[in-house]
Structures are given as structure tokens and as C-alpha cells.
Amino acid sequence: MLDRNHLEILREVSRLGSLTAAAEALHVTQSALSHTVKKIEQTLGTQLWLREGRSLRPTQAGNYLLGVANRVLPQFELAEQRLQQYARGERGTLRIGMECHPCYQWLLKVVSPYLKQWPDVDIDVRQRFQFGGIGALFAYEIDLLVTPDPLLRPELHFVPVFDYEQVLVVGLEHPLAGALYIEPVQLMDEVLITYPVETDRLDIFNLFLRPAGISPKRHKVIETTDILLQMVACGRGVTALPRWLITEYADKVSVVPVQLGKTGMAKQIFLGMRTTDECNDYLQGFVELAQTMS
């Protein structure tokens, strides 16, 4: 029969690629782990790993079981964490994932009053450019997702918290600085600077350039908002960001927003959660506060 220990072994062997490294991570001897691995395979009646020298590669059965481990183990770990918090008299930790990098500034405005309203709740924020938010919700790695791109699934619930306009951002001396709006063709000769996110997740590509069959002259990536805007201000390229963010930076950097297209590009930010967590009081408390402050 499978148990949690088997899944943990499978995950560590797959993650580290060898019995030696996995044994060290699991605080057991290599011989003991090797014996356990053989016993698991004998019990299940199928081979889970292919041995290639000192390395191990999962078989089809091993890959299937690894998927189970990656779904189930985070739930075990979350349950243990929550029970430990309850034992200490704490309410828990609200784990927030960010798929909207510029929204970090907005999030900070919500976090401060929230922590005062909920003194027995901690907040942990995960902000990664390659962050797979929907997958993290399903895997119980986060409790709440800040995203402009909700996924309509019966297991998930998304609440809109504020509207915004995505705009082109250029330096004050840029030829487009005085334009009422721009068309996609006007970016053909521009260096487009974005965060290091796949272009399939960037609105400037999906909603503006690609429908018109247009590509910028060059695409550059920069991680931090401040450096990105300084590059734009110095004429090293253009970018696309929420208008509200540019308003906040108005006194810090010499850039101006320009409308994208005749009708503009309207967007919304959503807070996503698992439907099973909709009754969580401190999670709902965050959503309600976010709506009132937007």
C-alpha cells in the first residue's frame, strides 16, 4: 500500500536525481533508501525508476505517481502547518501569489490595514515572474491569487477588485509622447521593454500587437519597475504598464502614458481562490478590504 513516506521518497529522488542526494535530504543512509525503493517497487508490482549509472529516471508509472505526490504532499504540509498554528493560538497564514507584478504596489496598501484588522493572521507573498498561479492554487501552494487573467473553472472562484487601463509608457522626448493614442504599426521600430514574463502572458502582445500581425523591432526584459522606467525615460525603449502605476511614479521619473488604440485597453484585477475556501473568514476579510480600497 502507498503511504506518505513513499510519496516523499519519490518526490526527493525525482527532484535530486540520485539516491545519494535524496538519502541526504531525507536524513537516511543510501543503503536504507535503496532498500526502501526496491520494496516500494515490489509492493506496487511495477518499476518506478530506470537506473542510468548513478542517476534515476522515472518510468511512466513513476511519472504518474510523481504527479500524485506533487498534488497530495503540499496538502499534507499545509494541514500540518495550519494545525501547528491553531495549537499556538494563531489563525493561520494567508499565502498570496502574484501574477501581476505592478500590482505589488497596490498590494502593500492592502496588507498594512489587513494585518491590523487580523492580528492573528500572517501574510506570505510569492512574487515570481514565471509563477504559475492557477497551478499553485490547485496544488495548495497559495490561498489567494492576484491576477488579471482569471480561469473559469468550477473549482475556482475569482472576485474583481479593481479596474485599470493598460497604456504605452514613453519618455518625455519620445516622438509618441504627445499622441492621443497609438496604433500597433507605430511600435514596429520600437524597443519594447517588459518584465521577464512569457509573451503569451503579456497583454501588449496578446491584445494589441499580435492581432494586428505586428512585432516590435526588439524585445528586452528588465525585472524591476524602477530600472525599467528609468530606461524608458532615457529613451532606451518603451513599455506597457497600468496607468495608475505611472501616475504614482509621476514625480519620480520623466515618462508619460499614451492610450493603446482608439478605445484604449481596459483590464481588471481579480483575486482568485479555491471554492472550498470561500468560507474562510480571514481570506474573505482580505477580499472585502481589497474591494473597499480599490
Structure description:
The chain has 294 residues and is of the alpha/beta class. The protein folds into 3 domains: 4-84, Arc Repressor Mutant, subunit A; 86-161 and 269-292, 3-Layer(aba) Sandwich (D-Maltodextrin-Binding Protein, domain 2), CATH 3.40.190.10; 163-267, 3-Layer(aba) Sandwich (D-Maltodextrin-Binding Protein, domain 2). It contains 10 helices and 12 strands. It has helices at 4-16, 19-26, 30-44, 60-87, 104-117, 133-138, 203-209, 225-233, 243-248, 281-292; strands spanning 49-52, 55-58, 92-98, 121-127, 144-147, 156-171, 181-182, 191-194, 218-221, 239-242, 255-260, 265-274. Strands 3, 4, 5, 6, 7, 10, 11 and 12 form an 8-stranded mixed β-sheet that branches. The protein is globular, with a radius of gyration of 24 Å. The N and C termini lie far apart (51 Å).
At the first level of CATH, the class of the largest domain is Alpha Beta
H/I helix tally: 10
What is the CATH topology of the largest domain? D-Maltodextrin-Binding Protein, domain 2
Strand tally: 12
Stretches where pLDDT falls below 50 for ≥5 residues?
none
The global form is: globular
What is the CATH homologous superfamily assignment of the largest domain?
Answer: Periplasmic binding protein-like II
What is the radius of gyration computed over CA atoms, rounded to a whole number of angstroms? 24 Å
Largest sheet: 8 strands, mixed
Binned, the helix content reads: 40-55%
* Order of SSEs: HHHEEHEHEHEEEEHEHEHEEH
Q: What is the structural class?
A: alpha/beta
Average pLDDT, all residues: 87
Distance between the termini: 51 Å
Strand residue content: 15-25%
Number of domains: 3
The CATH architecture category of the largest domain equals 3-Layer(aba) Sandwich
